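ok so i was messing around last nite and threw this chain in just to see what happens. nothing serious, just curious
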Amino acid sequence: MGLFQYDFMLRALVGALIIGLAAPALGIYLVQRRLALIGDGLGHVALTGVGAGLLLNRSPVLVAVIAATLGAIVIELVRAYGRTSGDLALALLFYGGIAGGVMLVGLSDASSGSLNAYLFGSLTTTSPGDLVTIGVLGAVLLVTMLVLRPALFAVCHDEEYARVSGLPVRTLNLVIAVGTAVTVTIAMRAVGVLLISALMVVPVATAQQVTRGFRSTMTAAMALGVFAAGTGVWVAATANTAPGASVVIVAIGSFLLVAIAAAGLRAVRRRVRADRSTPPPEPAEHEVLLG
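result:
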């Protein structure tokens, strides 16, 4: 615990815990809609915002929020009204976003290390201003996802039924899109744009192994996200590894352990049910005669 006496490690830990709590709260809606990879696409768009911020000498995080939000709105409109498929729209985000980001960073005075910090995460360089931004955006995102949970679940589960029920489907879809952009931007400091989706999706996939209801899955995913974030930062501090990669490795390791344990438990339950349903053996002929 000696390393956590330093302010930069405490900021890294607090920032990671906030992101670990907020990312699965949004990720569960993306998993429900089978849009798990949209975080990667918006992460690449956010990278373009980072490059623009560095080029214009503005806050890269705030410019990335604007860029990712615009990208999320565009892809939602394309999905709803355009003729382009969702997969193609995501591909355009992937390639155009990272190409624009690399080009703008190259035009700025920033070094290649600045680009790597956003590609792979750089929690230990989180400034007090970055931490305030992460905290405010994370709190707004978390409150929004919890307050609107029934309506957002209805839209993700059956959009047509939600529309017939009178819910503002278009607005709720935009809320999810903008929330994804915000999540991507704040998680960029923790794991980098190349690993963003992992923090949103893997805790949800882990929780689904052991829970049934939507609310319990969401709660378990948020707890697993906090666990992965905190443990990952601790591993990075003690083993001198990259914090973002450590957080994702812990999350994936948790998924594998829970998946194996859940599979073993299901096998045991099937065996017990099979034993209970098997009728007792018929008595042998000599046992019947002696009886």
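not much to say yet. The radius of gyration is 23 Å.
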